[in-house]
Each structure stands twice: as structure tokens, then as C-alpha cells.
Amino acid sequence: MPYSRVMDVRKNVGAVLEAARLTWRRRELVLEMTRRDVVDRYAGQALGSSWAIIAPLLTMATYIFAFGVIFRSRIGPDDNGTGYVAFALAGLVPWMGLQDCLSRATMAIIGNGNLVKQIVFPSEILPLKVALGTLPALMVGLFATIGVSAMAGRIDPLGLLVLLPIALVCYILLLAGLSYLLAAVGVFVRDIKDLIAFLLTIGLFLHPILYTPASTPPWLRPYFFASPFSYMIWCFRDALIGRDPEHIWSWAVFPVISILAFVLGWRTFRMLKPTFGNAL
Amino acid sequence: MSDPAISTISLGKIFRVWRHPSDILKEALTGRRRHSEFEALRDVSFNVPKGSVVGVMGRNGAGKSTLLRIIAGTLDATSGTVSVAGRVSAILELGTGFHPEYSGRENVFLGGLCLGLTRAEVASRLDEIVAFAELQEFIDQPFRTYSSGMQARLTFAVATAVDPDILIIDEALAVGDARFALKSFDRVRQFRRHGKSILLVSHNINHVVSICDHAVLLEKGRIIAQGEPSLVGNIYHELLFGPQVNTTEQLPAFDGAVAAPASLINDSNLPASTVVQDFGLPSSAQRMDADVNAVSASSRCNEMRTAEVIDSAHSDPFASDGLSSKATGREHRYGDGAVRIVSFFIRGENGSRVSNIRSLRPYEFVIHLHAMRDASRLGVGVLVRTPRGIEVFGANTFLLPELPTYDMTEGDWVHVRVPFIANLGHGTYFASAVVANSDSVKHDARFDALEFTVEQTPYHNESLTNLNAQFIYERPVDIQSNTRDRAGTNTP
């Protein structure tokens, strides 16, 4: 019964249409809130919103230094190092966006309790702005990755012009869906904030992000397939550093996962929304 | 009549309270109940007709905010239904949605967007909002630097600028200075004229009475009275200042007589006024008509009788003249009965009792007190209000330091005379009399016990008071000398 309810096609399509309508009608508010979300995070700091660019670049540099320079990871015999950097960045950039988004999504409703409680206001915008707020940093990361990938000579127009936009749309859907889910559940189960932070930290090492295919222990590979985020990483990698015939079917799995995540998140949020007031 | 803007049908709200957050998880996993329940609202039914202002009164914790939040849609109801027709704008708390670090201008934009306006719409209304909030000089300063009154003004200005069909205001009118309160009232009235509906919460009885068409009184999550604001205001007043009574206690029913007009009470749990019954005083309720409409009807025929209130429990010679049992039809009476106001009337210059008085003439209120028990440190107060409940004049002996408090022993009689000049404009007024001790224990409070009419004066227009003003034309002295010649030619 719960399964058939979750999979109810009419309700799921309805959820997507509902979300699209609401977002479009309140697009100005969504944009304004997103803008403030990015700006506010660094409000009052000397470097201001430049931190939105500096912080992810520094983090990426650290990982690249550790794996590319110290561990000397290479993706092939003819790789002088840029190949690995592009490879790692293509996985690291979407992962860091995910990390940033999910860790803040758990607080999207709790942290705005007075807004949700006190004014007639579409609270659906709060998780969405968190998801959209990760995009500026993501864009910076993507540009860096494209630059390195071009240096390594691995960029191809099909990937950049067709695959990357598809991957980005799916990525936003996935982020928004997970944000809705976590924001709604986070209202009632506040522990989820710490649980998510922990999972995201270890998740970096349990996904095919920094490991080259050659260096991945064979026993770990089946676990990669179990995680939905692996498909996201493979898709971004295809788009950014050339297609990998081994994971070509990720392009079927990733969109499905994204849409399901969005629908599930939206519907959970809408279901729990009326009861938020009890827990805030 | 068209559908009401807001309609609630036996609304109920039960909050679940978990002592510890982990109890939520345990309950979800084991299915065993680990919470306690708190009933915030029970069986709340009322309507807000289109184009009307409805006030919700009640003490702290009576469930007012819970009710507003359910209507605004930020909280779900446990039982019952709410239907809301139209765009709602709610001010449930001051300054919400406003970021303290942003300037007033940025907050107006964000607030307007939150309430459903587009950026262009906010821009076109910005000047009006800022002008209404009177924050022209401060609009580009951070919101946190505003005083609470300024924050309130900006919140109110933004919420009313979105042009909602339904406006819900929680206490927002109470802040800000008197001048802004007046402006806010004007805006609320303007809203009503345009057919919008307003639901308003206030602790301030005068606010509710002066701008609402209908009032709802909540106590412990239930509606204990609703109807004519001034009548409901009386019951609320008693709830606040009357003797402490456990209102959840089931009081014995008595011949269908209730503390407020029967139609106004939807529950057998009566407010404290029924306590009057305990010591044999006739409850005001027994004199009240079953319908509020009857109040105005009875006030229309007031010229038939002398304005006087007599306690029917007392064998006063006037008790038999038929005037006593229905003095105003809207009297609200409570108190512990240690001292009773046996009669209360206005005496004219020639010593007779009157109900029609002339503006600016001297009269006196006469209050006959009878002590049923020993009572000390007594004081007496009178209050004059309009039919809508606006207080025109109030005074009590405790405010006069040179006047000692009065002691009475059981069986004592005291006549209190309160001479006054009727500085009142033409119209109908209600007088109240209270006897209390200096600890604010009310022995007998008779609100709106006496109705009287101030006759039309030929020389001033409809207004509450008569300041006995004169108009004197004068020419300034220095100009007078210059114009004397010309003035002289004008007069033959």
C-alpha cells in the first residue's frame, strides 16, 4: 500500500506540475531569497561574498594537493597530472555542492521558524533556495574543472553542450528533492542534521570521487552501484572529461533517480508542511 | 448573504507535548504513547462575514494566537474545518520576515515579495508604504536600529499594502504611539469600506470595541462569548478583573439564564459572572434579552422610563415600579457581594431622578450602597461610555489621595453623591458604578447599568463631548489701528 501510493503516477506528475507552478509564480521571491541566501552567509565578513568562490576553490586545492601531488594519482600512463586533477574535480565539484546543500537543507525550516510560523508565506521556497544557493559555487567549480580538462585535452563539445546541461538539470532536481525531504524531516527529527553531516564526510571516501578506476579495490566497486550519488558523479565525469563507456547507462539511472527524489521530497514536504507549526 | 470570508466549524487543536525529543522517536518506533496532550482550542465556531471587522479577545494562553495561526494556515487543526475565501495577509508577529541587518527599504521589498507581490508592485507602492510608516529619513538604515514602534509601523504598512482580501492582525495595533494607532484604525476602517475582512486580536478592550463589528471571547481554548463587542468586552473585563473562578468547573444550569445573551454563549461552561448567583444577587444575565438585537430595541424605548437602576433583591420602594428588573437590558454585573450597589441613578437640579439630561447642566450620580458584610477601605467609581463602549469619562475615589477610603459594617447604608457638569454631546450614554476595596477586590460592579440621553443642543454638532466652546472674533491690536478707518466706513 505505501509503495503503491509512493509510485502513484498521477500524484507524482501532479506534484511536479504543482512545484513548477508555485516556483514560477513566485520566481521573483525565489530569486531574491536565493540571492540573499548566498550573500547572507558571508554578511559582515571582510571578504564578503568572495568567500562563496574562495572557500570551494581552497577546499578543492587541498584535495587535489593530497591526492594528485602527495599520492601521485594518475588516470593513465600518459597523464602528467592534469588528467587526474580534471578527473577528481569532475567528481569533487558536484559532491561539494551536494554536501553544502544537504547540510544546510536540514536547517531550512527550523532555522526560519518565525517565518514559517508567523506569516502567510510559501515555505516551499526555503528548501529550494538552499538548493539554488549552491549553484554559484558550483559554477565556479565547473569553470575550474572545464579549464583543467581543456588543459588535459579531454574536453569534447558533445559533453559540454549536451551532456552537461542535462546533468545540471538532474542535479538541481536531485538537490531540491533531497532538500525538501531533509528540511521536512529535520523539523521533527533534529538529529538528522548531525547524521547527514557525518554521512557526507565519509561519503566522500565511499564514492568514486577521488579514486581512479585503476586504484579502486575490486571489492568496493559493487558498493558504488548501490549509491545513487555514484551515478551523479559518473554523469558529470562523462560531461566534463570525456565519455566513459563503462558507465554509459548512468544517463538512464541518474535522471530517474533525480525525478524520483524530487517527487518524493516535494510530496513529503507538502504532506508534513501543515504540521510544521507543532514542532517549531 | 454571501459566504463569509472566514468560517470555522467546531475547530479543535490538540498539541502533543513530548517531554524529551527522544520520546518522539521511541513513540514512532514502538507505537506506545509517550506524549501528553494539551488542548489549545476546542469546538471553536465563528464566522467573519465579508466586509466586517471581527475582534478576538482573551487572556494570555486563551488560544488566540493558535486560532489565528490555524486560520492563516501556518498550523493545522486537529479537528473541525476552516474555510478562508480570498488572499490572506497576516501580521502574526511584528517584524517577521524582516531581516535585522537589511535596511528598511530592502525589507519592504522582501516583505512584499513574501506576501505575494511582484517586485514591480512593491516598487510602485514603496513611497506609499514609507510615507504611511513615516520612516522617510530612516528607510535606508538597518532594520535593527529601528525602535519597536518603528518596526511595528513598517510591518503594518507592508502587510496592509499588499491589498489582501483578508487581513489578520495579532496585537499589531497595540504598539506604536497613539497617533499611529489612529492611522492604523483609519486604514482598518478603509479596508472594511472596500469590502475586505479583518480579523484582529487585541488585549485592549477599547480597540476591539471601537473598531470591531463582532467580538469573540476565548478562554481556555473555548469561545465563551461572542456578539456585540461592547457586551463581549464587558464579559472579558470581568474575566480579567472579576473574582477568580475556576471556569472549567461545571456550574449548575439555572433556567436557561446565562451570563451573556443566550445566543452568545455556546457552552454550558459559563464565565465568572455566574458567581453572582451564589449569593443571591440577580445576575445581570437574567435581565438580559436572549438576543443582542433586543438591546438596541430596548434602548430605543428608553425615554419611557426614568434612568435608574435598582437592585431587585433589596426591598426598595422603587422595586415595585417595574423599572428595576430591566434597567438597560445590557447591564453586566459581578462582584463578591460584600457591599451592594442597591440603586444607581442620576439626580437633576430639582432633586428628581432623570434619564434625559441637558448638556452643560449640573447633575449628580447617586449611588446607594448597602453592606451585606463588614467591608473596609472602600472606594467607589463611575464610568460613562457610549453604546459602542468608548469610555467618555471614568473616575474613582482611589485616584483622589485626599479622600480617605471608607469603611462599612454589616447592614450599613451609604449614599454616594457624584455631582458633575454634563459636558456631553447629544446622544445616548451608559453609566457604570463600581464599589471595590483598595486591594481591587470588586464587591459590586454594575457595568452599563444606567442608560441616559443627552438632549440635542441647538448649537453644536454631533460629538461626544461639549467643551462649552465659544467663538470670538478679534482683530490683532496693531492691525486694528491701520484698518480702523476702513472698518469704520463699513458700519453705518
Question: What does this entry show, briefly?
Answer:
With 280 residues, chain A is mainly α. In chain A, 74% of the residues lie in helices and 0% in strands.
Characteristic terms for this protein:
A: 280 residues; mainly alpha; B: 492 residues; alpha+beta; Rossmann fold; 2 domains; 11 helices; 21 strands
Write the layout of secondary structure elements.
The complex is a heterodimer of chains A (280) and B (492).
Chain A: H1 2-6, H2 9-25, H3 27-41, H4 51-70, H5 82-105, H6 113-118, H7 125-133, H8 135-151, H9 157-188, H10 192-206, H11 221-226, H12 228-241, H13 250-272, H14 276-279
Helix pairs in contact in A: 2-13, 3-7, 4-5, 4-8, 5-7, 5-8, 5-9, 5-10, 5-12, 7-9, 9-12, 9-13, 12-13
Chain B: E1 6-18, H1 21-30, E2 35-48, E3 53-58, H2 64-72, E4 79-84, E5 88-91, H3 104-114, H4 119-133, H5 148-161, E6 166-170, H6 178-193, E7 197-201, H7 205-211, E8 214-219, E9 222-227, H8 229-241, H9 284-287, H10 293-300, E10 308-310, E11 332-334, E12 339-347, E13 353-354, E14 356-357, E15 362-371, E16 375-385, E17 391-396, E18 406-408, E19 413-421, E20 427-437, E21 442-454, H11 477-490
Parallel strand pairs in B: 3-7, 3-8, 5-6, 6-7, 14-21
Antiparallel strand pairs in B: 1-2, 1-4, 8-9, 10-12, 11-21, 12-13, 12-15, 15-19, 16-17, 16-18, 16-20, 20-21
Helix pairs in contact in B: 3-4, 3-5, 4-5, 7-8
Q: What do these coordinates show?
A:
The complex is a heterodimer of chains A (280) and B (492). Chain A is mainly α. Chain A has one domain (14-279). Chain A is built from 14 helices and no strands. Chain A is globular, with a radius of gyration of 19 Å. By secondary structure, chain B is of the alpha+beta class. Chain B folds into two domains: 6-219, 3-Layer(aba) Sandwich (Rossmann fold); 276-454, Coagulation Factor XIII, Chain A, domain 1 (Distorted Sandwich), CATH 2.70.50. Chain B has eleven helices and 21 strands. In chain B, strands 11, 14, 16, 17, 18, 20 and 21 form a seven-stranded mixed sheet that branches. Chain B has a six-stranded mixed sheet with strand order 5-6-7-3-8-9, with helices on both faces. In chain B, strands 10, 12, 13, 15 and 19 form a five-stranded antiparallel sheet that branches. The chains are: A mainly alpha (280), B alpha+beta (492). At the A-B interface, helix 3, helix 6 and helix 14 of A face helix 1, strand 5 and helix 3 of B.
